[in-house]
Amino acid sequence: MSLLFSPISFGPLQLPNRIVIAPMCQYSAHDGCVSDWHHIHLGNLALSGAGLLVLEATAVEPRGRISHADLGLWNDDQEAALAALLASVRRWSPMALGIQLAHAGRKASTARPWEGGGAIAADDPHGWATVSASALAYDERHERPQALDAAGIDALVEDFAQAARRAVRVGLDLIEIHAAHGYLLHQFLSPLSNARDDAYGGSLENRMRLVLRVFDAVRAAVPSSVAVGVRISATDWVEGGWDLAQSVALARALDARGCHFIHVSSGGLDPRQQIGTGPGYQVPFAEAIKAQVAMPVIAVGMITQPRQAEAVLAEGRADAVALARGILYDPRWPWHAAAELGASVVPAPQFLRCEPREARGVFAAA
After folding, report:
1. How far apart, in whole angstroms, are the C-alpha atoms of residue 281 and residue 271?
2. pLDDT-based confidence at residue 311 (cuts at 50, 70, 90)
3. What dihedral angle (degrees, nearest 10) is formed by the CA atoms of 90, 26, 103, 135?
4. In this predicted structure, what is the pLDDT of residue 1?
5. d(Cα 248, Cα 315) in Å, to the nearest integer?
6. Which of 52, 247, 251, 294 could form a Cys-Cys staple with 234, CB 3.0–4.6 A?
């Protein structure tokens, strides 16, 4: 039996297979609200046969957006629009749905990627002043952020908790806290972006404090039936930055608090990063963390081939695999993987007649 198509549990959430669709920003929201594009995009992915679909990075307050066109979940209009979208998707797909709650910190206030993706000044109609762990800019093109004070940190923690409550009200099954890719929580973790001398800076214990506070607040804000996990960058790929040893310490602290999964990525914090990319290049980080924790570990990063994904699981290097760009390119990747690995998926009944002759048996009845 294919391990990729075997069940897995993220805490209270039971999944039929170990294919996770990773959060992927679409930069297509209006005032933080989902648009028609999200109905098309998420509806398509919800029919892919994956075990779990995680919605894109969703800001917990206006300054937390990467761009003006990011999703948000800090007001009633955003909650209502998301609820309507999810009701539509669930009419046609039983797939588990999650959301990634995020704050971009000093990497906020940028243009959309197809508009150059560069930093936008605070006085631009599509820009705003940013915040971070310290008043250190991401690069010379970004304005210096304001360092959050104690009151600002407390408000941020509550913003995450309130967004989590909204996520539960719209019926999401899972919450992923975004502490990766150089965004705000990662900015507190890394000594390259955190120069604080208070309880949130200096030692590893202090730099981890905000992530752990946010996790505890989100767990406390949602019922036990909702899975809560964290996405991290396992390394900054810069000497003297956040690294695997510190990631293991954070993962163990989260595991002890009852974290339901950890999603292991890397990079994004510092433009000096030197990333050695290649097929499965981040899997060793997931493997090292998996050896130290009881919670499931999700591996991600250039896992593009079914047998490659199967090997990651068969070799015990991770518990699930996540796809991003690969499943945008091929939204039926799980179908094709099932056919190649001798497994089956349950499609929407409208698709049953398209089962190809060379892959008889890949479709199973609901």
Report:
1. 19
2. very high
3. 180
4. 87
5. 20
6. 247
Are 317 and 264 in contact by the 8 Å Cβ rule? The answer is no
Find tokens 């290649």 and name the residue: 278
Q: Read out DSSP for 152-185? A: HHHHHHHHHHHHHHHHHHTT-SEEEEEE-TTSHH
Name every residue whose Cβ is closer than 8 Å to that of residue 317 and which is 6 or more positions away in sequence. Answer: 283, 284, 286, 287, 290, 299
Structure token digits, residue 169:
């009200």
Which H/E stretch holds residue 325? helix 325-329
Name the DSSP letter for residue 199.
T
Length of the chain: 366
Q: Phi and psi dihedrals of 305, rounded to 5?
A: -110, 140
Packed helices 333-341 and 306-314: angle between N→C axes, nearest 10 degrees = 70
Residues 14 and 94 sit within 8 Å (Cβ to Cβ): no
Reported as a single tens digit per residue, the pLDDT across 201-223 is 999 999 999 999 999 999 999 99
Taking the C-alpha atoms of residue 335 and residue 344, their distance in angstroms, rounded to an integer, is 8
For the purposes of burial, counting CB atoms within 10 Å of the CB of 343, is it exposed (0-12), middle (13-18) or buried (19 or more)? buried
Report yes or no on whether pTM surpasses 0.70.
Answer: yes
Q: Cα(328)–Cα(325) distance, rounded to whole angstroms?
A: 5
Kindly compute the dihedral angle of the four CA atoms of residues 127, 105, 179, 269, in this order, to the nearest 10 degrees.
90
Residues that are catalytic: 183
Terminal Cα distance for the chain, rounded: 19
What the block records as the tokens of 317 is 């290097």
Q: Please state, as a whole number, how many other Cβ atoms lie within 10 Å of the Cβ of residue 85.
A: 21
According to DSSP, the β-strands at 13-15 and 8-10 are antiparallel
What percentage of the chain has pLDDT greater than the value 70?
A: 100
For tokens 């605070």, the residue is 122
Helix (H, G, I), strand (E, B) or coil at 224: coil
Amino acid code (one letter) for 327: I
